[in-house]
Design brief:
mainly alpha; Growth Hormone, Chain: A; 2 domains; 3-stranded antiparallel beta sheet; two-stranded antiparallel ribbon; 5 strands
């Protein structure tokens, strides 16, 4: 008897394959990610140091007195020795960031890294929560919760009166972004045939949206206006998210058959096809789930380690996710290390993601997930190390024009290859885990990746002290973990698995 996983694969084709409903679903999810991308990348602009001049210099004359020298115009002056410290600053009037809002310069510059790290900690919490939430209450519910959280706290950011309060806002924005990002690709993949899985994930919506953020930041020049725009966009995307159907695979795996039938009928109507006969699929699903698995089983992160087969997937993936995500977020947020124009750098660092995403889909369909991920990770490792070395010598040579250009080009190539590895890893992870733990497995790996992202802001801060540190560290991390990919099975053209059999002590995937 054909398994219900295979029957569901045929059902997707009978419903139009990648028909109008699937295209609309992907379009809604990808456009909704605009507010998520902008909220995640916002600190690249909001935490940008626009430059300052010292307004007041406090000169310590003795242990009891100090001389106040006002109206100075020395660029980026923090101190003159231990006895002369700048106490107030003048910032450009045409650019307003949290740095100029709360004087986060000189000995307070670390606060920017702290705020960014707090946001990534929220992202981590959101990723952990998303897996359990999506496998318990559904993919759609989790995405709506993510959009709602991002919208509300972007609006709350307008009223932050201190950097401490603003840190709390960034934490909850991170939670919302984690909820949405962890589920969006899984939801799209579960609605399309195997050939289309890489292609829907590789649609270069993210880079385009990120490049638009560079334009928006240049246009608005103000962090509060950016927050207001993101809140309004969040409200709009929250409304259209309500029209997204729930994952049929998830509904069937939870034996919510009546609701699954309604969603299938809705998809068939939009695609203009007749609703297939579902009796055999539902009967097979009930039989398989009740006989080879526990219908009332509660799957948690611990499940990923109780099954030997899942354990052999989870550990190698975790090492890869940590190194690749550390590199990706480091290169995305640490833009100041390779350029002086913040708007141009935001544009370029995301422009290179366009070919990375566009080519990844066709290439992994041709060469397979495992080989492509190994090659792109290896290339990224080499390019990152070279970029780190070039950045170090670039600073020693006091920004030689030719060396600066070479550094920029190599850094952008490193970003492009690490993006390709990251996208392949997303597709690979969702195909390796069965439906009942797919978002739990994906969220666990995303959480491991966010651990690296939490440390990235401080790595960027260290890079400012020792140029090239961040890129070189990322290159070494990827090099050490790239070999793990060869321990995993190839998933090219594989039917998505749906359940974990509990008929033995170890368990296996079906």
């Amino acid at each position: 008897m054909t398994s219900y996983s295979s029957q569901l694969e045929h059902l997707i084709n009978d419903l139009g394959g990648c028909g109008l409903m699937q295209k609309l679903l992907c379009a809604i999810i990808l456009t909704s990610s605009t507010v998520i991308y902008w909220s995640t990348l916002a600190m690249a602009f909001i935490g940008y140091d626009p430059g300052f001049t010292c307004h007041t210099l406090n000169v310590k004359l003795s242990s009891l007195s100090a001389l106040n020298l006002s109206n100075l115009s020395v660029n980026r002056l923090c101190s003159i020795g231990p006895n002369a410290m700048c106490s107030s600053y003048i910032f450009p009037q045409d650019l307003n960031t949290v740095v100029s809002e709360w004087n986060l310069v000189c000995d307070r510059r670390w606060i920017v890294s702290f705020i960014t790290s707090i946001q990534m900690a929220g992202f981590l919490v959101g990723s952990i929560t998303a897996g359990q939430m999506a496998d318990s209450t559904g993919r759609k519910t989790t995405m709506i919760a993510g959009i709602s959280t991002v919208m509300l706290f972007n609006f709350a950011g307008l009223f932050a009166q201190s950097w401490e309060a603003y840190s709390s806002v960034r934490f909850f924005i991170g939670i919302g972004a984690g909820l949405f990002s962890t589920v969006q690709y899984t939801h799209m993949i579960e609605f399309v045939p195997s050939l289309w899985r890489p292609l829907v994930v590789c649609i270069p919506a993210g880079p385009v949206v990120a490049m638009l953020f560079a334009l928006v930041a240049w246009w608005l020049h103000d962090w509060k206006r950016i927050h207001l725009l993101k809140a309004l966009l969040g409200l709009f995307f929250l409304i259209i998210q309500c029209f997204v159907p729930e994952s049929v695979r998830w509904l069937v795996s939870k034996l919510k058959l009546e609701r699954a039938e309604r969603e299938i009928k809705f998809v068939a109507k939009v695609n203009g096809v007749h609703k297939p006969d579902l009796k055999n699929i539902f009967e097979t699903a009930v039989q398989e789930i009740n006989t080879t698995s526990n219908r009332n089983a509660v799957y948690t992160v611990a499940t990923l380690w109780t099954s030997k087969e899942l354990r052999n997937v989870t550990l190698p993936l975790a090492l890869l996710w940590f190194s690749v995500n550390t590199a990706w977020y480091g290169m995305t947020l640490g833009m100041e290390s390779i350029s002086v124009d913040i708007y141009l750098t935001i544009f370029l660092i995301n422009l290179v993601d366009l070919p990375a995403r566009s080519l990844t889909g066709p290439l992994i369909n041709r060469f397979g997930r495992r080989k492509y991920c190994y090659v792109t990770a290896g290339m990224s490792s080499i390019l990152s190390c070279v970029s780190g070395i070039l950045q170090y010598f670039d600073k020693l040579s006091h920004n030689s024009e030719s060396l600066t250009m070479a550094t920029l080009v190599i850094s952008l190539l490193a970003k492009m290859t690490v993006t390709a590895a990251d996208i392949c890893l997303i597709i690979y992870t969702t195909e390796l885990y069965p439906t009942v733990v797919r978002t739990i497995g994906y969220s666990f790996q995303a959480t491991v990746g966010r651990l690296g992202a939490v440390a990235v802001p401080f790595l960027i801060h260290l890079d400012g002290l020792y140029p090239g540190t961040m890129y070189f560290t990322c290159g070494v991390l990827i090099f050490l973990s790239a070999g793990c990919i060869m321990r995993l099975k190839e998933t090219k053209n594989m039917v998505l698995q749906d359940i974990i059999c509990l008929d033995s002590s170890e368990g296996h995937i079906r």
